[in-house]
Structure formats: structure tokens, C-alpha cells
Amino acid sequence: MAEAFVKTSKRDYAYIADLRSAQRVLEQLPEWFEDYNNNASHKGLKMLSPREFLRSSMEDLKQVRYN
């Protein structure tokens, strides 16, 4: 799983980022993580972002509990 995350990070974020200094990279990391978790679709999550997948899973659980 970690290898896939590193590969995706390099392909989708680091490749097009400002990498002139370690400080600049560290400043960009929160934006990359935010995008990765909120917007980027993941094949292993049925093409949903991690947060979309969690929301969907929680809604499914609520429906099971209340039905």
C-alpha cells in the first residue's frame, strides 16, 4: 500500500510541483494530501476518493442499523 501511495504522490504531485527546496515541498504537502484524500479517485475504492468511500460506507452502515 505504501508503495502505491509513493508512486501516486510522485506521479500526480511531485512531478509538477515546485521542488526547489525542502521547505517549499513541505509547504505543499498539506495541499497534496487534501487533494489525494478528497478528490483523487482510487481504483481499490471503486473509483471514489478515500473520503467519499468513507462517507459512503458510513451511510451504508446507518441504513443497515436503522432498517
From TrEMBL:
<dbReference type="InterPro" id="IPR012337">
    <property type="entry name" value="RNaseH-like_sf"/>
</dbReference>
<protein>
    <submittedName>
        <fullName>Transposase</fullName>
    </submittedName>
</protein>
<feature type="domain" description="Integrase catalytic">
    <location>
        <begin position="2"/>
        <end position="50"/>
    </location>
</feature>
<dbReference type="Pfam" id="PF13683">
    <property type="entry name" value="rve_3"/>
</dbReference>
<dbReference type="GO" id="GO:0015074">
    <property type="term" value="P:DNA integration"/>
</dbReference>
<dbReference type="InterPro" id="IPR001584">
    <property type="entry name" value="Integrase_cat-core"/>
</dbReference>
